[in-house]
Structure formats: C-alpha cells, structure tokens
TrEMBL record:
Keywords: Membrane, Transmembrane, Transmembrane helix
InterPro entries (alphabetical): DUF112_TM (IPR002823)
Pfam family, one: TctA
Domain DUF112: 19-440
Protein name: C4-dicarboxylate ABC transporter permease
TM region(s), chain numbering: 19-48, 60-81, 111-130, 142-160, 166-186, 198-216, 260-281, 323-344, 356-375, 396-429, 466-488
Matching PANTHER family: TRICARBOXYLIC TRANSPORT PROTEIN
Lineage top rank: taxon: Bacteria
Amino acid sequence: MLLDYLLHGMTQLFALDMLLLMCTGVAIGLFIGAMPGLTVTLGVALVLPFTFGLDSLSGIILLTGVYCAGTYAGAITAILINTPGTPSSVTTAWDGYPLTNQGKAPDALRLALYASVIGGLISGVFLILLSPQLAKIALKFGPPEMFALTFLGLTVIARVSGSSPIKGLISAAAGLLFATVGIDLISGVPRFSFGMNFLNAGLGVIPACIGLFAIAEVFHQIEKRNKIFIPEIPESSSKINEVSWRLLLKHKMLLMKSSLIGVGVGAIPGTGGSVASFIAYDEAKRASKNPELFGKGSYEGLMASESSNNGITGGSLIPTFTLGIPGTSSAAIFLGALMIHGLTPGPDLFRFQGELIYTVFLGFFIVNIIMLFLGSIASKWAISLLKIPNSILYPVVLAFCIIGGYAITGTLTGVGVSLFFGVIGYLMLKNGYPPAPMVIALILGPKVEESLRQSLILSSGDFSIFFTRPISVFFIILVALTTLIPIIRNLKLSKNFKKNTKN
C-alpha cells in the first residue's frame, strides 16, 4: 500500500508545474529565511493566502518548500555577518562566523547546506515510515517531561561560556531575568513592564538576537575601525566540494545523531528548532575530540546545528498530520492550511487521503533536493557580501537589522528592543561576557518556567512528579551526566597534570 502511494506521488510531483511550484517555494524560503527578522514562520504565513486558489496538494507543497528552505537560509547571514536569520540558527553563528573570519566562508556555507539537506532527508524518512508511532510517543509528553527536556537544553550554558564560566553564568542570569518580562502565562499578571503596555508581550527573542549578535557586532567593528576581512575564495568550486564531502563522510555519525535529535525534539509539540539545535550542539561538543574548537570555528558544531534544525522540519510535521497538534509555530500554519483545504488531521486523514498525504511526504524529499541546488547558487551570490567595503556594509547591515526588528512586531517596539540589546551586546563584547548564554536563557527560560509551574500545579507542589515519570527521569539522568562527566574529566586531567609536574 505504501509503495503504491509513493509511486502515485512520483507521477504527480514530477510534472513540470509541480516542479516549478516547489522551486518557487524554495526560492521564497531562501530569501525570507536569510533576511534578519523575517522568520520562516512569517514566510509560511505570508505565502499561505496564495495557496487559497490552488488545489490541496499544490498549496501544501508550496508551503513545504518555503518551510524547508527558510529553516536552512537563516544559516547564510549567521555565517557571513553573524546575524542569525532564524532562532535555530543561533548556534550556527557561533562557529559559522569565526570560520568566515578565518577565510573559510565558502566551506562553511557549503557544509551548512549539505548538513541541512541531510537533516531534512533523514527527517523525511521518519515522516513517511514512523509518523503514527512517533506521534504516540509525543502524546506522552506532559509538563514534567517538557521541563526535563528544556532544562537539559539549559545545561548547554556551561559549555558555551568560554574561558570564564562566572561571566557565562552572569550572562545567563541576565537572560533569564529578561525572559520574565511580560504577562505571566500562569497568573496573567504583568511582570517588569513598569506600566508600559508594549512590554506586556515580552521583549521578543528575535529582536534580542538581532541586537546581541548583529547590531553589537556592527558597533564593535565600528569602534575598532577594522576593515571587513575578505577571505581568499578558492578559484575552483570543485575544491570546496571535495573538502565539504570529505568532512561530511568523516562526521557521518554526528550528522545522523544530530538529525535524529532534531526529529525527536520536533515531534514533541511546542519545543521548537532552537531547543533541538542547542541540545545537538552540546552533544556534539561533548562527544568531540576537539571540543576546544567549538565557538572558534568548529565544522562539527556547524554541522550539528544545521542538521538538527532541519531535522526538526519533518519531525514537527509528524504530530501535525497524525494528531492535529503542531510541533512548531510554522507547523501550526500547516495545520491551518490543511483545514482550509478541507483536510482534517488525524488517523482518518491517512485512511481516506493516503495518496495525497504520502505525495506531500514525497514532495518533502524532493524539496530538500531542490534546496541543495538552489541553495548552492544562493551561497555563491551571498559570498559577494564579503567583498562590500565596510563603509557600505555596516550601514546596510544596521538598516536590515532595524527593518527586521520592525517586521517581526509591526511596531517600533521591535526596533527599540533590537537597539537595546545591541547596546547590551556591545558592552558585553567589550568586557568579555559571552552573549550565547543570554540567548539560550532568553529562548529556553520561558519554556522551563511554564512547564515547571504547570507540573507543580498538577502535583500540588510535590517535586516528586519529576522522578516518577519514566521520560522525565530519563532526561534528568541526562542532565546529571552532561553536568558531571565534564567535571570528573577535568578533575582527572588536573590530577594527571599535578603528577606529571611533580615527576
């Protein structure tokens, strides 16, 4: 039955009009995802009205192209100008931008694209073969499980704090404080808004990321009055391909593991791509033979980030199609698109509309392959950004940051938040405080707080609820292991060092 559905889907998807539609979706996603502030969720929402005049298959396929390409495209500006196009690209910027400063931008862009495509294809396999089974596991995630998972994500802070853990913790604490601004989701009471209504909606993660990474970097470079470093781009693109494929083969298990993390986290409603990328990045650093390179230009960190956040694209669609519960905000728009086209998510969708759904799943594969080719072209064009004189590039980047801050909120509030965090980020850079822990705390802090308080409400304040549920206990054990193992390893290294110095 499954094979029949897939063969039927191939006959439909390889028609010229469908291929053009998929290419259009990918091109739109690449453009929107690479623009600071224009998130993939916004891109899918903007394209949704254009699907009303299309049939069900064409409309959903178009949105799939925007979703997959937009998720990857955030890596382009993250690598080139330290401006994550999407929240899930934050970890990409940590190693992508240092690689650019080392003259390795072509390799970094190519690796990010390949890792994204691999993550997308692996998630597509699970989307086709294991949708109902993974959806059943996702249903078992309640507030205690969500707390344990997001708390696991917070443990990444200890490993992205650089040479000064104290400064990293101070940065994270400030991020957690900023994350509490706005309406309390449990009690409905405004917190730290100081009577200003625009703060009731919170500070906003994306404007904060734009400020902490892009605007702060612009201020920092202007103060230094340094010229933009223009890398020596290899004359032959085949050399770039050779290096990229060799690295991919060398780290094939890393790509597989990170993609699976993306699929697993994506199948859990409400987590988001940023959680997956933080966990995958942390796991890659923990297992790496060269953890000291992470944050300074590690190919492993780059590949882990991109394969995980594109692995989440297929994972997030699993509960969307099978249960009607979106895994991410972009998947929520997919849910709306299904209903607009008269399709009700759930088991009956697979029973009565099997040909349509599996054609969409097959289209997910083809969209990722198209992204491989169009993304390669977009990466070559993007390299030209590095050749722009700094007197032109800095004002343009700053202008795009302001436009992005406005676009995400539709008001000047987003611009103000971006500039506010730009000043904070600049001061942090001057004084050696890493911005990464603050971003992690801003993104995961609200999720940790909400799930913690919901769990305690369910248990009437009894903390044992976290230790009596198998999935929650599993993640808590992972938290303990990821925290204790590096400490034990460092203690052993210090003891060996003392022994060697005595001898």
